Amino acid sequence: MFFFFVGGVEQQVRQVLKYGAGRCISCGSEADLVDYEKVLKLFFLPVWKWPGKDPMMYCDNCKLFFPPSYSLPPQTAESQPPPPSSVPVSLRCRFCDRLVEPDFRFCPFCGSAL
Protein backbone atom coordinates (compact mmCIF):
# COMPACT_ATOMS: atom_id res chain seq x y z
CA MET A 1 0.00 0.00 0.00
CA PHE A 2 1.33 3.40 -0.97
CA PHE A 3 0.21 6.59 0.82
CA PHE A 4 1.13 9.96 -0.57
CA PHE A 5 0.71 12.89 1.83
CA VAL A 6 0.47 16.39 0.40
CA GLY A 7 0.23 19.13 2.96
CA GLY A 8 1.94 20.86 5.81
CA VAL A 9 1.88 23.83 8.14
CA GLU A 10 2.48 27.35 6.87
CA GLN A 11 2.20 30.85 8.29
CA GLN A 12 -0.19 33.50 6.99
CA VAL A 13 -0.66 37.16 7.83
CA ARG A 14 -3.82 37.71 9.85
CA GLN A 15 -3.56 41.46 10.51
CA VAL A 16 -0.96 44.17 9.85
CA LEU A 17 -0.15 46.00 13.09
CA LYS A 18 2.29 48.56 11.68
CA TYR A 19 3.29 49.16 8.08
CA GLY A 20 7.01 49.76 7.37
CA ALA A 21 8.07 48.94 10.94
CA GLY A 22 11.50 47.72 9.82
CA ARG A 23 13.54 46.24 7.01
CA CYS A 24 13.81 42.63 5.91
CA ILE A 25 16.89 40.72 7.03
CA SER A 26 16.98 38.86 3.72
CA CYS A 27 16.29 41.37 0.95
CA GLY A 28 16.42 44.75 2.76
CA SER A 29 12.99 45.94 1.64
CA GLU A 30 10.32 47.28 3.99
CA ALA A 31 8.83 44.79 6.45
CA ASP A 32 5.56 45.09 8.38
CA LEU A 33 4.80 44.13 11.97
CA VAL A 34 1.96 41.58 11.76
CA ASP A 35 -0.18 39.20 13.74
CA TYR A 36 -0.03 35.85 12.03
CA GLU A 37 -1.70 32.48 12.14
CA LYS A 38 -0.48 28.99 11.42
CA VAL A 39 -2.50 26.98 8.93
CA LEU A 40 -2.52 23.20 8.51
CA LYS A 41 -3.17 22.31 4.88
CA LEU A 42 -4.00 18.90 3.46
CA PHE A 43 -3.97 18.58 -0.30
CA PHE A 44 -3.56 22.37 -0.49
CA LEU A 45 -6.82 23.04 1.40
CA PRO A 46 -6.80 24.73 4.84
CA VAL A 47 -8.00 22.31 7.52
CA TRP A 48 -7.08 23.96 10.82
CA LYS A 49 -5.94 27.46 11.85
CA TRP A 50 -4.51 28.68 15.13
CA PRO A 51 -3.01 32.07 16.10
CA GLY A 52 0.72 32.65 16.42
CA LYS A 53 2.15 33.53 19.83
CA ASP A 54 3.88 36.89 19.34
CA PRO A 55 3.77 39.46 16.53
CA MET A 56 6.31 38.88 13.76
CA MET A 57 7.89 40.94 11.02
CA TYR A 58 6.76 40.02 7.50
CA CYS A 59 8.41 40.99 4.22
CA ASP A 60 5.90 41.12 1.38
CA ASN A 61 8.74 41.13 -1.17
CA CYS A 62 10.35 37.80 -0.27
CA LYS A 63 7.48 36.39 1.89
CA LEU A 64 9.72 35.94 4.94
CA PHE A 65 8.50 35.88 8.58
CA PHE A 66 11.11 36.76 11.21
CA PRO A 67 11.19 37.99 14.85
CA PRO A 68 11.11 41.77 15.40
CA SER A 69 14.36 41.60 17.39
CA TYR A 70 16.25 40.70 14.16
CA SER A 71 14.70 43.50 12.10
CA LEU A 72 16.90 46.14 10.53
CA PRO A 73 15.86 49.74 11.32
CA PRO A 74 13.44 51.35 8.86
CA GLN A 75 14.97 53.54 6.18
CA THR A 76 14.68 57.26 6.73
CA ALA A 77 15.54 60.11 4.39
CA GLU A 78 19.04 60.29 5.92
CA SER A 79 19.77 56.55 5.54
CA GLN A 80 18.66 56.32 1.90
CA PRO A 81 21.35 56.61 -0.75
CA PRO A 82 21.65 59.90 -2.60
CA PRO A 83 19.87 60.24 -5.95
CA PRO A 84 21.58 58.49 -8.87
CA SER A 85 22.62 61.73 -10.57
CA SER A 86 24.90 62.78 -7.69
CA VAL A 87 27.01 59.58 -7.67
CA PRO A 88 28.91 58.15 -10.65
CA VAL A 89 27.27 55.13 -12.24
CA SER A 90 30.37 52.99 -11.71
CA LEU A 91 29.86 53.15 -7.92
CA ARG A 92 26.28 51.79 -7.99
CA CYS A 93 25.01 48.26 -8.44
CA ARG A 94 23.07 48.03 -11.69
CA PHE A 95 20.53 45.64 -10.16
CA CYS A 96 19.69 47.03 -6.69
CA ASP A 97 21.00 50.61 -7.29
CA ARG A 98 22.94 50.75 -4.00
CA LEU A 99 26.37 52.26 -3.48
CA VAL A 100 29.20 49.76 -3.96
CA GLU A 101 32.91 50.13 -3.37
CA PRO A 102 34.75 50.44 -6.71
CA ASP A 103 37.04 47.47 -6.01
CA PHE A 104 34.15 45.00 -5.36
CA ARG A 105 33.39 42.42 -8.04
CA PHE A 106 30.03 41.44 -6.48
CA CYS A 107 27.37 43.58 -4.84
CA PRO A 108 27.40 43.01 -1.05
CA PHE A 109 23.63 43.68 -0.86
CA CYS A 110 22.10 41.56 -3.66
CA GLY A 111 25.05 39.35 -4.62
CA SER A 112 24.96 40.09 -8.33
CA ALA A 113 28.13 40.41 -10.40
CA LEU A 114 29.11 43.99 -11.14
From TrEMBL:
Residues 23-111 form the Zinc-ribbon domain. It comes from the Eukaryota. Coiled coil: none annotated. Pfam families: Zn_ribbon_15 (PF17032). PANTHER family: DOUBLE ZINC RIBBON PROTEIN MJ0416, OS05G0435400 PROTEIN. This is Zinc-ribbon 15 domain-containing protein.
